[in-house]
Task: structure prediction
Amino acid sequence: MISSKSRSNIGSISSIVLLGTVLLPVLPAGAVEAWAPDVQAIERSGFDVDYTQGNELLYVREEGGTNLTGVYSRFAVADYKPTLEVCTDFGASFDCNKEYVDLDADPEAEVDPEGVVQAPPVNIGGTALLPYCGGKVESCIESLEIGVGEEEEFLPATYSGTTSSRSHFVGNPSVGVPSGVGPAIFNSEAAHSGGTEYTVKAALSFDYRNDQSAANRFYANEFSLRVFGTVKTTGGYGPAQAEVCQETPDNKGINACGNETQDCVYQDNGVCGVEHNLAMGTSFRVSMILTNELTGWFRGRLKAPNIEVLPIDAGYSRVVISGDPVEVPRFLATFSLAKGDPDVVGPLEDNGHGGAFTLFEAASPRAMEIVQGMRARVNDTAAGISTVWSVNSISANRATSGQGSSRCLADSSGLLGLVTTNAMSYLGTVPSYSSGFLSYKVAGLHYAPDGKTLNLGTYDLVMRSDVARCLYGFSRAPISATVSVVGDNGEEYVATTIVSEKDGWLKLAAYGFTFSEKEIQVQLRQSQIKTLTRFTSSALSSKQKAEIRAVLAKSDGNTKFICTGIRYVSQPMSENIKVRKRAKAACDYAKSINPDLSYWYQTKTTKAKSYNGKVMVVTKSPQGG
Result:
C-alpha cells in the first residue's frame, strides 16, 4: 500500500499540488460531513490501493481545494537541477536573495578575488491564497455575504482570521505580486449543514520573471475562488507547508509540492476545518480586489451566476461574483488492468497522483475520457454528491482550445464571460464557436449514489453582450437565443432554458437535463428590421425586392416575418387600404423565397411624415416577441 503522504508533480513553478496525511477528525454531535472518498473502507473491502503496483483509485477532483500558499525561486537556466527553493522573502531585487553556484567550476581551483561570476536571472512563482483586504489596494478578499429566504436578503459574514504557515509571504502590490496567507475564515448568521462557519479560498497563481523586460515581468496565470461550509475540529494537526520534493513514487523528479491534511479545508496547530455541505436555497456573494492581469474567461460551479467588474485604477478592479451552489455528482472508482478493467488510464507517468489517488481534474478532457470509459464499470452511478460554489479562470492556453481563430473569444482586454455547470466532468475551455453555434461539452453518470435517482444537469453562460455581437456581426439591437442539449448520437434532450440580456451581459441557461456525454449548443439571433425604399407604384420595385432578400439572408434561425404598412395619422382610410396592400405584397414576395417562416402583415399609424406610405419588414425569433 502506498503512503498517503506521497508527493505529486505539478510541472510548473507556478502551481502546487497538495498532498499529505489523512487524519480522521472528531466532529460535533449531529454534524454531517460533506462527501469525501473513504480510502479505508475501500481497503477493508479487499482492494489494496497502490498506484505504483497497478491498483489505482481513480478520483475526479474539484478545483479550488488548495489550502496551501507557497512561492518558489528558480534560476533561469536550463538543466540547473539544485535550483528550486521555497521563498518567503522576495528581497529588494525580487530574486529571493538567491545565491548562484557555478556547477561547472573546479572546486579545487584557486579563486580569483577579482573574478566575477555572472549569475543568471532568478524567476519566482507560486500560488497565493489572498488575504482579507486591509488599508491598501492589492489582490485580496473584501467580503463574503450569504443570501437567504425568498427575497434573497444578503447577510454580511464576519471575518474571523486565517491560519499560520512558514511558507506565507508578503507581496508587492505596485508590481502586481500578491501576498500569500492561509484560507479566510468567516462566521455568519446563516447556517449550513454543520454550523455557521464558512471558509473562502481565493488562490492566485503567478510568475515574476526577471529574465523579461521590466514592463513584462508579472504574469497572473490562474485564479480560483471557492466557498466552503466548515466546522472547526481539534486534533494532532499542524500548518500546511510548501515544500520541494526531490523524488516521487510516480517518477516525476524534483518539483514543487506541499504537505497538508487532505480532509482539512484549512489547518493549523491543533485545528482542522472539516468541510460540510452548503445549504441549498442559499446564495453567496464574494467581493474581491483583483489584478487587472486576470482577463478573458472564467468557469465554475454556480447556478444563476452574476458578475460585476468595477475598475479601481490602472492595476486593479473590484470583482463581485454571486450565485447559487450546485450539487455535483462525484466520480471515484477502483481500477486494475489485471482484474479486467477497461484500458483507459494509461501509464503511471502520464497522470497526477496525490495521497492514494490517481487524480483527474473535473474541468478537463481527460476526466471526460475516464467518466466515459468507466461508465459501465461503475454501473453509470456516482460515488457521491458534493454541494459546490466555485469559480476558476481559464488559462490562456486553454482559452483558445477548440474555438478556432475567433478574435472575439480570445480578446484579452478584460473579463469576457463565465461558463458554469454541475457536470461531473466538462471540457474546461471557452465555449467553441462553429457554424453559428456556441458549444460546450459535458459528461457525467446518469444516476445518483442510490442507483435510482437521476442526476440532473445545470448550465449557465454569462457573456458580455459586445462579445456576442462581435461573434455574429450583430448590431446593437436586442439579441435572442435558443439553448439546446444534444446527445452523443445527435438526439436532442428536453431542458428548461432561460435567455436574457441586461446591463451589457447576455445570460443563457439550461437546467434539468440528464447526463451521458452531452453538447450544450447556443444559437444567438437578432431581429432584422428594414424600412423599404419609397413606393412609386403598387408593385414592388427591383430595389425593394433586393432589400427583402437581404433581410431574409440575415435571418437565420428567426421564424417570424412581419410586414407593416405605415400611414400618417391624419391620412384617410383609403391610405390605410393602400399601405396594407403594399405590406401584403412585401410578405407575399418574401414567402415566395422562404415559405418556411410564419408571415403576418398589418398597418400602423405614425406622427413622422417621412414614414407615410412606407413599408417596414421585421424578422424575429420565437423569443423576439
